[in-house]
């Protein structure tokens, strides 16, 4: 299930937020996801770390997720 959410995040905030708006009762599970290894665009460029803009992470399950070195700008974490 986490793979679907990873793919949504890889696309853009619009796709992720659209899914969130259409599925308000569902909790996105990003448990134990390593955001850097899973969401880096260029796996060979260690300076191209994941950046997230305007993403609604409210009620997402981020238990044990590795978020280090990621940038979250204007994201919702309620």
Describe this structure in words.
This protein has one domain (2-73). Helix content is 32%, strand content 8%. It is built from 3 helices and 2 strands. The chain is mostly helical and 78 residues long. Strands 1-2 form a two-stranded parallel sheet. α1 crosses α2 (13-22).
What are the SSEs and their pairings?
Blueprint: H1 2-11, H2 13-22, H3 35-39, E1 51-53, E2 71-73
Parallel strand pairs: 1-2
Helix pairs in contact: 1-2
Briefly, what is this?
The chain has 78 residues and is mainly α. It contains three helices and two strands.
- Major sheet details: 2 strands, parallel
- Helix-strand pattern, N to C? HHHEE
User: Any low-confidence stretches, pLDDT <50, length ≥5?
Assistant: none
Number of domains: 1
State the helical fraction: 25-40%
Average pLDDT over all residues: 88
Rg, Å, rounded = 12 Å
Quote the beta fraction: 5-15%
* Global geometry: globular
Classification by helices and strands = mainly alpha
Per DSSP, the total helix count is 3
Comma- or semicolon-separated keywords:
mainly alpha, 32% helix, two-stranded parallel sheet, 3 helices, 78 residues
């Amino acid at each position: 299930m986490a793979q679907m959410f990873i793919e949504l995040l890889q696309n853009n905030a619009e796709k992720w937020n659209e899914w969130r708006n259409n599925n308000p009762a569902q909790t996105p599970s990003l448990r134990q996801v390593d955001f850097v290894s899973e969401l880096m665009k260029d796996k060979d460029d260690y300076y191209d770390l994941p950046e997230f803009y305007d993403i609604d992470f409210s009620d997402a399950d981020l238990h044990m997720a590795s978020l280090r070195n990621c940038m979250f700008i204007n994201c919702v974490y309620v």
